[in-house]
Amino acid sequence: MSKEQFNSLTQVNAAIVTCEKCPRLRLYCAAVAQEKRRAFREETYWGKPLPGFGNAAAQVLIVGLAPAAHGGNRTGRMFTGDRSGDFLYAALHRAGFANQPIATARDDGLQLIDAYITAAGRCAPPDNKPTPEELNNCRVYLIEELRLLHNVRVIVALGKIAFDNVLAAFAGRGLVIPKPRPAFGHDAVYQFDHYTLIASYHPSQRNTQTGLLTPPMFDRVFARARQAITQPQT
Q1: What per-residue confidence (pLDDT) applies to 234?
Q2: Which CATH number fits domain 9-230: 3.30.70.1290, 3.40.470.10, 1.10.357.10, 2.40.110.10?
Q3: According to the model, what pLDDT value does residue 2 have?
Q4: DSSP string over 142-189
């Protein structure tokens, strides 16, 4: 079980934003925020760990890998201002989980509908590769989000790292992980207690541009999520 507990999502998010557990990541994010990308040189980068966001009464929790260096690390909101977010929010809008298909800035009017977005890692990692220790440092926040998001019934894990960290968070909450251990695969579905866990390929540029993940494939994932929350609980 988690040794850290918070009274609210507001407290969790405040702890995330001020987190200094991973020196490598904090140095990297600060350096990126200082150097910037030429296209964003007039912007002030967020440069801090990213909290989750969305509807606190959500039934669907979406878990990503980590912020992008010039995406979330710049804008201060998960999957905002990068190509992965463009692909994700378009799908969420089509599925009725977002009020608009684009996410460019924290003040762009985006609202999630019955959904909450978080990540396995809260800081942008070099080469998009957080270390196991860094992910372990972050896991308490995911565990606490699971505890405090009382209405969540469906979890969509974007990519294998997110999938593995959801399983680790389940174990951290005392849920039994069956053997053989659930395997990651796109559109794979597993049941844990009252949670339905749906795995999806991550909407990274590499996956979407090569066709490993297409819009119809992504739409099926969120159609499954919609179907799961409309079914009566037993």
Answers
A1: 61
A2: 3.40.470.10
A3: 52
A4: HHHHHHH-TT--EEEEESHHHHHHHHHHHHHTTPPPPSSPPPP-TT-E
pLDDT band per the 50, 70, 90 thresholds, residue 17: very high
The domain spans of the chain are 9-230
Q: What's the distance, CA 105 to chain centroid? A: 17
Q: Is 12 within 8 Å of 124 (Cβ atoms)?
A: no
Rounded CA gap, 132 and 139, in Å? 10
- Per 3-state DSSP, the chain is made up of helix, strand and coil in percentages (nearest 5) of 40, 10, 45
Q: How do beta strands 189-192 and 154-158 pair? A: unpaired
Helix 215-230 to helix 83-94 angle, to the nearest 10 degrees? 50
- Rounded distance, CA 100 to CA 121, Å? 25
For residues 100 and 217, give the distance between their C-alpha atoms in angstroms, rounded to a whole number. Answer: 20
Which residues sit opposite 173 in a β-bridge? none
| DSSP class per residue in 63-100 | EES---TTTHHHHSSTT-SSHHHHHHHHHHHHTTSBSS
pLDDT of residue 232: 77
Q: What is the pTM of this model?
A: 0.95
pLDDT in tens, 147-162: 999 999 999 999 999 9
**Residue 140: φ, ψ to 5°:** -55, -35
Q: Please say if the pLDDT value at position 97 is more than 90.
A: yes
